[in-house]
What does this fold into?
Amino acid sequence: MTWTEVWQWLVANSWVGTVFGIVFLCLVLRLVLKYVFDRLEHATGLTDNVYDDAIIRVSRKPIAWGILLYGVLAAAAIVRDNTQTGVLEFIPQIREIGTIALLVWFAIRFISEVSKAVSSHRDEQHDRATIDAVAKLLRVSVLITGFLIGLQSLGFSIEGVLAFGGIGGIAVGFAARDMLANFFGAFLLLLDKPFAVGDWIRSSEMEIEGTVEEIGWRITRIRTFDKRPLYVPNSNFSNITIENPSRMTNRRIKETIGIRYDDMSVLPAVLNDIRSMLAEHDEIDTDQILMVNLNEFSDSSADFFIYTFTKTTDWARFHEIKEDVLLRIASIIEGHGAEIAFPTQTLHLDPVDIAQRVS
It folds into this structure.
C-alpha cells in the first residue's frame, strides 16, 4: 500500500484519528491532573483542616481513572458508530457501572482518610475505637448502596432484591443469632465505653481479669496477668458487672496495726505523729479522706487503722509508696519506745497448786 492509498484511507476513515486523538488527550489530561493535584496537596497541607487534605488525597486516583474510563468509552463509541460492532452496544451500562464504582471508591477512601485523621487527634483509646467502628459501618453502608444502585442500572428490580434480602436476613438471623448478639454487644461497648484497649478490667462473675488488647466485632481479647490470652464473646458484657481499675482516681491504703498494751501511754502521740507524717507525705492525696484512729482492743494489742489515698494509680508505684508509709509508721512507733504487737498469751498459775504438784 502506497502513502497515497494510506492517506486516502485515513481521509475516508477520519474517525480513526479522532479515536487516537481522544486517547492521547486522556493521557495528557492525566499528566496535567498529576501536576494540579501535587500543587493542591501542597497548599492544603499548610492548613489545619483535615477534610480538604482528605478530599485532595482520595480524589486523585478516582478522577485520573475516570478520565481514562470516559476517554476510552468515548473512543469505543466512535468505533461502534463507524463499524457497527455489536460487542460495544453495552457502552452506556459500562459507563454507569464505572461511574458508580468510582464514586464508591472515592467515598470509601474519603471515610478511611477522615477517620485516620480524626483518630490521630484523639488522645483516648476508646474514642479512636468508636471512630474506627463508625467508619467501618459507613464503608459497609456505601458498599451496599453502591451495589444496589449498580443492580438497578443493570435493569434488576431493587424491590425484589430487598424482599429477597429481607427473607434471607430473617433466615440468617436465626442461624447466626449468637454472632449478631456479639456484633451488637461490640457496638454497645463502643457507645457506652465501659473500657477501652489498654484498660485493666475484671469481673468476679466470669473470673475475668487482665488487660484489654482488642475489641473486635465478635470477641474481645484480654491478656491475663500470667500472659494468657482470654477471648470473651461481646454479648457476655451485657450481662455481667465489669470493674475498671484503670479509671480509678486514687489508690487506697487501708491497714490495721496493733501496739502492745504496755505502750498505751504513748499511743496518742504515735497517732498524732502518723497523721502529721501522712499529711506531709508528697505521694499522699490530702484532698481525699485521711484517717488515723484507735479502732479496737484486741486480745493481745491495741489496734489502730490508717485510711488514706495515694496520688498515683499506677499499681507498681502504689506498692512502693505503701511500703514507704508502713516503714515510716514502724519508725514512729519505735521512736516513742513502743513496739508493734504480735499475738501473745499470758498463762496464770496458782502457786498453791504448783506447790502441791511439786511435793
